[in-house]
Design a protein that fits this description.
With 464 residues, this protein is mainly beta. The protein is built from eight helices and 31 strands. Helix content is 14%, strand content 45%. The N and C termini lie far apart (50 Å).
Length: 464
């Protein structure tokens, strides 16, 4: 794994534009924050693509809809420059993609690399999604959906633009000091892509409010990915691995594999590093290390799925992490957020969108149960926790061959490991205020009701 990731990073990092540098202003971009500059910036991108050149900007604030980067170019957003997203949905073309685990038509992101290669997005400037208007649209919809038993549909029907999408892309380098803020939905989604390096990025999604489902970096059915030196403040999962939901994810059946997440700090979010809840395609050869999570993060290591997701995980390594004030440092649940995870149509529902039918397609039990094995978690230091370890799955789909070693946690209570098989615990030191010891229950035993860490798509309550 080290060799190919090094090569991927080298290829992305050493990609330099061969052609001329063009300035978007020379193609009509105003940068006054009021005139829509989409067409002018896109003209500059198209021109730079002819020679594998660079697009840059004079200082200013550039109001724009979706932009589409082309193979071979560099988009340089220098200090003093902000690209801010339009507040109008018509400025984001509806295109085929995958969103929250199912393939469907959805608004393009603000910055898109679709079916392209050898692309760099860099600079010390800012890309701003102007999130509050999109967050409000979500809460307004959810207030009407939830009483009708449609909590699960809220994320799909509130069409909020992502900030950056890499789809069917390869050899992309994203970073170089750039700031990504106030995303309408997920901040960076790496979808069906390979050989991607994301390094030296700052993500801020809790400015001007707290955006629901504003994940930091989502690696979705992709491979050969490196994320390093990220500074993340979001309102859902910070560093997250995904690969499909339920029947549609099982149909696509593309794993996420060969991923390294390292040397990053998470200030707010549902979890520091997450696998799931979209797990249908499986995970292989995943490593996360040198992560720091602060109070404001719900879980440290979080593995989550559901009994309709299916999928598997093998050879997962989480190590050398420090959690301060994180309620649940080690958290595994295979029955995550039922009101979101299990979609059913209300009685009498007619003329529903096609993707509702996809979401409510039944998955046979044998396919729906997730299977996770060979997970190694070590060198974890946590203080100020509520529940040190919280693990639960299913008696007929146990969590197999996990190893925990060199774990040092100070917590209110120790917690429970349920539905496990062939676990090894070595040098696990849990200091508890209530004097409890970590309980390892045999498969089939009923674990206590799960503690709740904030986050997990339920991080905030909308204002009246």
């Amino acid at each position: 794994m080290t060799r190919f990731l090094a090569l991927a990073l080298l290829a992305a990092s050493l990609h330099q534009a061969k052609g001329a540098t063009v300035k978007a202003n020379d193609f009509g971009a105003r940068g006054d924050g009021t005139i829509l500059d989409t067409a002018a910036i896109q003209r500059a991108i198209d021109e730079a693509a002819k020679t594998h050149g660079t697009v840059t900007f004079a200082p200013g604030t550039y109001l724009t809809g979706s932009l589409f980067l082309k193979s071979g170019i560099t988009l340089d957003v220098p200090a003093g420059v902000t690209l801010i997203g339009s507040e109008h949905l018509e400025d984001y073309p509806q295109l085929p993609t995958r969103i929250a685990g199912i393939e469907m038509t959805w608004p393009a992101a603000l910055i898109n690399v679709r079916d392209q290669q050898n692309v760099t997005l860099t600079g010390h400037g800012t890309i701003d999604g102007d999130g509050p208007i999109w967050w409000k649209s979500y809460w307004d919809l959810r207030k009407t959906y939830e009483p009708r038993g449609l909590r699960w549909a809220s994320d799909y029907d509130a069409r909020r633009p992502r900030l950056v999408l890499l789809q069917n892309a390869s050899n992309v380098h994203l970073g170089g000091g750039i700031t990504l803020r106030r995303s309408g939905f997920w901040t960076i989604q790496v979808l069906y892509s390979h050989d991607i390096a994301i390094e030296d990025v700052t993500i801020r999604n809790n400015e001007g409010g707290k955006g629901p489902s504003t994940d930091g970096i989502d690696i979705d059915s992709s491979k050969n990915i490196l994320v390093a030196h990220a500074d993340i403040d979001v309102n859902d999962d910070a560093l997250c691995l995904k690969d499909g939901r339920d029947s549609d994810g099982l149909r696509v059946n593309r794993p996420t594999e060969n991923v390294v997440l390292r040397d990053s700090i998470i200030r707010h979010g549902a979890a520091a590093v997450t696998i799931g809840s979209e797990t249908s395609g499986g995970f292989r050869n995943i490593e996360a290390y040198n992560l720091t999570a602060l109070a404001g993060v719900g879980s440290g290591v979080l593995i989550k799925s559901a009994h309709t997701r299916g999928g598997w995980a093998d050879d997962i390594r989480f190590h050398d992490m420090t959690f301060t004030g994180v309620p649940i440092p080690i958290h595994v649940t295979m029955n995550w957020n039922p009101s979101y995870s299990y979609a059913t149509l209300p009685e009498g529902a007619k003329d529903v969108p096609p993707y509702w039918k996809v979401l409510t397609t039944k998955v046979p039990e044998a396919q729906g149960l997730p299977h996770f094995r060979n997970v190694h978690i070590w060198n974890i230091k946590a203080t100020g926790a509520k529940t040190a370890v919280q693990v639960a799955a299913y008696p007929n789909a146990t969590l197999d061959s996990f190893r925990l070693d060199h774990i040092d946690i100070a917590a209110q209570t120790a917690g429970t490991i349920a539905d496990s098989k062939d676990w090894t615990l070595t040098d696990v030191n849990i200091q508890t205020a209530d004097g409890s010891k970590l309980a390892v229950l045999p498969p089939g035993a009923t674990p206590p009701k799960e503690a709740t860490a904030f986050g997990d798509r339920e991080p905030v309550t909308p204002k009246p």
